[in-house]
Design goal:
The complex is a heterodimer of chains A (388) and B (261). Chain A is an alpha+beta fold. Chain A is built from 10 helices and 10 strands. By secondary structure, chain B is an alpha/beta fold. Chain B has a single domain, classed as 3-Layer(aba) Sandwich (Rossmann fold). In chain B, 27% of the residues lie in helices and 25% in strands. Chain B has a 9-stranded mixed β-sheet with strand order 9-8-7-10-6-1-4-5-11, with helices on both faces. The radius of gyration of chain B is 22 Å and the shape is globular. In chain B, 42% of the residues are buried. The mean pLDDT of chain B is 91. Classes of the chains: A alpha+beta (388), B alpha/beta (261). At the A-B interface, helix 1 of A face helix 2 and helix 5 of B.
Chain lengths: 388, 261
């Protein structure tokens, strides 16, 4: 096993790092403060292909792999958690399921626009009564002639109002499984602007404040029959498989936030003087930094491993990366929370002030333990595999 | 249209600068970047490609490691890379460098050659115009803006108190300023292509019409007496005068002392 990165990954890392420093970092504080979606950054990222990294060139993407995509989310998140999740939700939750389950017509219709960033993607699974309990879906889709009629609502949707293409999970009937009645769940592609598709409240969040998080409302929203993604009744599997990939993206976001906080803190403790010397000279600081760096490195190994497993899946369509994705997300998210909290502590009073990046990083880190499956859900996934 | 952009791998001034015992730079030991003026030249060529359609070849002379900047250029959108590398070419000054690059260019097809104005390591601004002299090409230096007009280029040349608009028939050579434009980033897909792209390597034997007496350290008339890293200036003198009058007379005294007034 070789832990050295190939030349192409080194170059990609340099690219993402330069882009993050020059284009993303200068906006991070302002978009957080004003809860403003960074449309201009999305346009720049689109220009350089960041919105179609793991998409084949013939589908309008960059023809790279999951590891390159993970590095992109990681580097963006080092300076801005909001920008990281915009790319992650778009790529993992919208582009990926169309790539995996779309018909040739659906791929031809959506992938070139999504991969080039002309259009932005989102994913709607969560409902007020269906978070971790994804089976608790209420949104319904009923076939009426040549159209599906959607009714219901989705909440906490990332890229909410800013997206153009949405993957929506809805109940299409009732089926009997092992003598029990269960909801039949299917997935659909819904376009912004479809009559009956509107937006509800914008969420006022603790962190990733520049991210556009909205409620999606469907009132007799009619979409064509061929907007069904994958087979009817396979929506739950599609959603779960999509989230496996999404977790790698969020793990990369968490990893980036942790790395960003660590780098910022290393610089700060060298500058900050107390009792006549820099606080980097105190053993407590040194030991804290050592722990933070070690955990960040361990998280990075898990995240990169999960990305490489997904790459393997893309080759053979067999390899499961569900456990690796869950482990990467669980660990990276908890490390992000721990490292950012320690970063704030090492900054002392200044760490609690909004002018300092670590304050934002700590707020941004928290969501990584919650969305795309809470840490508890990740533990369920991991242990279920151990005890099967 | 065929454009060749000459680019150089230079030390990243953010990292440390290291020297060989003979006073030349120890390029193998330093972090490196694409020279900023050259990068602007490359961007200008890529814009010509976007606007008019052109084949952009990047050419560099250096250690095998210099292929890195060619890959970076290809990842930005250049079509081909040419590396001129040979042990006998090492230690070249501007004369030997321009002779070598001209020898390589004689082997290649081009309508336009673009170089950076100067490299941040040597800061001479000589290589571009010297290449043009060797090849008998018209040269327009300090380009701020480049446009095509049929088989000619129209260049806005920066000048101390304004600018000149110059027109030259191709083939010709232009030296670019970093102010010319904001170079684009690489793209992820471009990087994946670049690492697999074939780089043409030229050695001493491939150079056309070049005499041995004009290449490498031996062919370099410039002799480096001494080279040093940037020396940090001291903190300076701090004076707290009692009154504005004292301050003025102190400053006037100092200026007199240095024969400034």
């Amino acid at each position: 096993m070789d832990f050295t990165l190939d030349k192409k990954y080194e170059m990609a890392q340099t690219l993402f790092r330069e882009f993050a420093q020059n284009e993303v970092k200068p906006l991070a504080q302002e978009i957080d403060e004003n809860h403003r979606f960074p449309r201009e950054t999305v346009e720049k990222m689109a220009k350089y292909g960041f919105l179609g990294i793991p998409v084949a060139k013939e589908d309008g993407g960059q023809g790279c792999d999951p590891l390159t995509y993970v590095m992109c989310v990681e580097e963006l998140s080092k300076v801005c958690g909001t920008t990281g999740v915009i790319v992650s939700a778009h790529t993992s939750l919208c582009v990926d399921p169309i790539q995996t389950y779309g018909t040739p017509e659906q791929k031809a219709k959506y992938l070139p626009d999504l991969a080039s960033g002309r259009k932005l993607g989102a994913f709607g699974l969560t409902e007020p009564g269906a978070g971790t309990d994804a089976q608790g879906q209420q949104t319904k889709a009923v076939l009426d002639g040549d159209e599906w009629v959607l009714n219901g609502s989705k909440c906490f949707i990332t890229n909410g109002k800013e997206a153009d293409v949405y993957i929506i999970i809805a109940v299409t009937g009732v089926v009997e499984k092992r003598g029990r009645k269960q909801k039949e769940i299917s997935a659909f592609i819904v376009e912004k602007g479809t009559p009956g598709f509107t937006f509800g409240t914008k969420e006022n969040k603790m962190g990733i404040c520049g991210s556009s998080t909205y409620e999606l409302i469907f009132t007799d929203c009619r979409i064509p029959k061929d907007a069904l993604l994958g087979q009817k009744g396979k929506g739950f599997g599609i959603a779960m498989h999509t989230l496996d990939g999404g977790r790698i993206g969020i793990a990369a976001q968490a990893l980036g936030i942790a790395e960003g906080a660590l780098e910022t803190t290393i610089n700060y403790v060298k500058e900050r003087k107390q009792f006549g010397r820099s606080i980097a000279q105190f053993q407590n600081t040194q030991f804290q930094l050592a722990d933070m760096a070690t955990k960040v490195e361990a998280a990075k190994m898990l995240v990169y491993k999960a990305a490489m497993k997904k790459a393997q899946y893309q080759q053979d369509h067999k390899t499961s990366y569900s456990v690796e994705a869950a482990q990467a997300k669980l660990y990276a998210a908890e490390v992000a929370m721990e490292v950012t909290t320690k970063a704030v502590q090492l900054h002392g009073g200044y760490g609690y002030i909004k002018e300092y990046d670590v304050e934002r990083m700590m707020r941004d880190a928290k969501i990584t333990e919650i969305y795309e499956g809470t840490s508890e859900v990740q533990r369920m996934v991991i242990s279920a595999n151990l005890l099967k | 249209m065929k454009v060749i952009v000459c680019i150089k791998q230079v030390p990243d001034t953010k990292g440390g600068v290291q020297f060989n015992p003979d006073g030349t730079l120890n390029r193998a030991a330093m972090l490196t970047i694409m020279n900023p003026d050259d990068k602007a030249g490359l961007e200008a060529a890529l814009r010509l490609k976007d606007q008019y359609g052109a084949e952009v070849t990047v050419l560099t002379m250096g250690l095998p490691k210099a292929a890195d900047v060619l890959q970076e250029a290809i990842a930005m959108g250049a079509d081909k890379g040419v590396l001129v590398t040979d042990r006998v070419l090492g230690g070249a000054d501007t004369w030997a460098t321009s002779t070598t690059i001209a020898g390589a260019l004689r082997k290649l097809e081009y309508d336009l050659v673009i170089t950076g104005r100067q490299a941040i390591d040597g800061d001479t601004a000589q290589v571009g115009p010297q290449i043009a002299e060797h090849l008998g090409l018209p040269v327009i230096s300090y380009a701020q803006e480049i446009k095509l007009d049929g088989d000619s280029v129209i260049v806005k040349r920066q000048y101390d108190d304004g600018y000149h608009m110059l027109k030259a028939k191709m083939p010709c050579l232009i030296t670019a300023l970093s102010e010319l434009n904001e170079p684009r980033y690489m793209t992820p897909g471009g990087i994946f292509d670049a690492v697999n792209a074939e780089i043409t390597t030229l050695g001493r034997a491939d150079l056309v019409d070049v005499d041995d007496s004009n290449i490498g350290l031996k062919g370099s008339p410039t002799k480096i007496a001494r080279a040093s890293d940037k020396v940090r200036k001291g903190a300076g003198e701090k004076i707290v005068p009692d009154s504005p009058e004292d301050a003025v007379s102190y400053i006037v005294g100092k200026l007199n002392e240095k024969h400034a007034i």
